[in-house]
Amino acid sequence: MICPHCDHKFSLSWGKYLSAPFGPHACPSCEQRIKTVVSVSSCLLLGAIAILAGGTPAVIAFFLTHNFWYTIAAYALFAVGVVVPVDRYLTNTKRPVKPVE
Ligand SMILES: [Zn+2]
């Protein structure tokens, strides 16, 4: 991401991303608060990825165990395990950044 205040280019570390996944974040150069703009299409993309990434393991878990909770656990584990890194990638590279008022 590029800071709108000082044009400093940086990436959020895992620690900084996980401490505030919805922002705002502080620029490491000027320490001004900034926030990424999340578009509707980005949310739809993440939802589709969650369905695809979690759906297949959930179906496999259901047929192997016939247990509702194992199915839900497999879905949640794989959906979150794929969506969180994709969301961090989008935050660091694709999403526009605006200053926090
Ligand atoms: Zn800055």
What does this structure look like?
The chain is mainly alpha-helical and 101 residues long. It has one domain (14-99). The chain contains 3 helices and 3 strands, in the order αββααβ. The chain has helices at 14-19, 40-65, 68-93, and strands at residues 25-26, 33-36, 97-99. It has a 3-stranded antiparallel β-sheet with strand order 1-2-3, with no helix packed on it. The longest helix is centred in the middle third of the chain and has 26 residues, at 40-65. It binds zinc ion. Zinc ion is lined by residues 3, 5-6, 8, 27, 29-30, 32.
SSE layout and pairings?
Layout: H1 14-19, E1 25-26, E2 33-36, H2 40-65, H3 68-93, E3 97-99
Antiparallel strand pairs: 1-2, 2-3
Helix pairs in contact: 2-3
How would you concisely characterize the structure shown here?
With about 100 residues, the chain is mainly alpha-helical.
